[in-house]
Amino acid sequence: MGTRWQTIALTSKKKTDLLDITEAVSGACQKAGATEGLVVVYCPHTTAGVLIQEAEPGLLRDLEGWLSRVVPPDEAYHHNRIDDNAASHLRAVLSGASVVVPLRGGRPALGTWQRVLFVELDGPRERGVHVGVIA
Amino acid sequence: MGTRWQTIALTSKKKTDLLDITEAVSGACQKAGATEGLVVVYCPHTTAGVLIQEAEPGLLRDLEGWLSRVVPPDEAYHHNRIDDNAASHLRAVLSGASVVVPLRGGRPALGTWQRVLFVELDGPRERGVHVGVIA
Amino acid sequence: MGTRWQTIALTSKKKTDLLDITEAVSGACQKAGATEGLVVVYCPHTTAGVLIQEAEPGLLRDLEGWLSRVVPPDEAYHHNRIDDNAASHLRAVLSGASVVVPLRGGRPALGTWQRVLFVELDGPRERGVHVGVIA
After folding, report:
1. What residues of A are in contact with residue C103 (Cβ under 8 Å)?
2. Which of A57, A97, B39, C120 could make a disulfide contact with C17, Cβ separation 3.0–4.6 Å?
3. Does the residue A5 lie in any domain?
4. B100–A104 CB contact, under 8 Å
């Protein structure tokens, strides 16, 4: 019993970019070698996040569109006097910095339509997420 | 020490349906038999979620109303050409796929007003959540 | 291996108040004495939450402003007939009741710009959060 952390390197290609990292997370679980426990995927960035959803391409476009409506890019944000990416930070609050998934039989026990998505909100950039297997 | 996963079966009755599953989660903790640790409630669905809030009936109506305003049902969603439930998916992003609660003295150590809520967003359906006790 | 829970007492000073609790969370990790594992920060309140973001003062003002726009204070909320704080509850849904952070080398392994923020949404009040170290 214990925790093993691994890091997955990612490259985003666009300002907003939704990357399906399910296979990489599964691979990290296999390397960890545990069977029953909890998988934690942690995003160490403040203008990106992770979430669990279906990766249907139309839905990913809808998610991008919705994020840009619920956090409009053109408000008079105070943070933009420093870094011009306040909307990226606020959208990251919506996506969240981590997800947890059951580990069962050595694999992340996602539901039928669930995928682990990395949510780039201020790309393109080199990024990384940490995968912890607790068992 | 280790992790035990159990599944709670649920039946939602409406398109949007907020179910208080606190007692079922507490029951799963009792069965697991551990005293100190972490309880994870995981929703394996992409048009439903779980969250922790007060279960006051007026507040639950407010939560339903707010979800329908912040993710309107009638946008021109791309996903709707496939499944006509894009708004349900986007609302599920807001609720989130999991919650964690401290396990103390063999029970979920919720605050005074906190309840664990299953958030159905595309019902009515047969659903399930997984409860993991890590201790 | 096991879990140790500690409680951090907090005092908010305003109706909406974003408190950087990173140092207190780090201190709880040091007291727990474990090296590799998971840190859980749990908010037992329904009109407050915790999240991970940059603590730049302009961004915190932007976050406050965005919360008041996405959950307006002046809707005809049903819960307000009981307690007049429905908007605080709905904003707490957005912030979430918990965060998890990797524990590495005995410390919370936050990203460069990440801080753990307590999000008071119905203050000023005496509050508390529970910090669990799982290792």
Report:
1. 3
2. C120
3. no
4. no
A1 occurs within a structural domain: no
Asked if residue A4 belongs to a domain, the reply is no
- What is the residue-wise DSSP string for A63-131? HHHHHHHHS-TTS--SGGGTTS-HHHHHHHHHH-SEEEEEEETTEE---TT-EEEEEESS-S-EEEEEE
CATH number for C46 = 2.60.120.460
pTM: 0.98
Q: Which residues of A touch C53 (CB under 8 A)?
A: 46, 89, 92-93
Distance CA C76, CA B61 (A): 11
Q: Which amino acid is at B113?
A: W
In this structure, is residue A87 part of a structural domain? yes
The pLDDT tens digits of the residues spanning C9-25 come to: 999 999 999 999 999 99
CB within 8 Å: B1 and C1: yes
Give the helix ranges, DSSP H, for B1-135. 22-32, 57-70, 86-95
Q: Which domain holds residue B119?
A: 3-134
Domain count, chain C: 1
Sign of CA dihedral A100, B26, B89, C78: negative
Scan for tokens 């499944």, then name that residue.
B83
Identify the three-state secondary structure at position A25. Answer: helix
For C57, other C-beta atoms within 10 Å of its C-beta total: 11
* Cβ–Cβ contact B135 with A under 8 A: no
Token pair recorded at residue C124 = 């000023």
Which helix H or strand E contains C103, and what residues bound it?
strand C98-104
Q: Is the predicted pLDDT of residue B1 greater than 90, yes or no?
A: no
Instruction: Decide if C5 contacts B104 (C-beta within 8 A).
Output: yes
pLDDT tens column, C30-63: 999 999 999 999 999 999 999 999 999 999 999 9
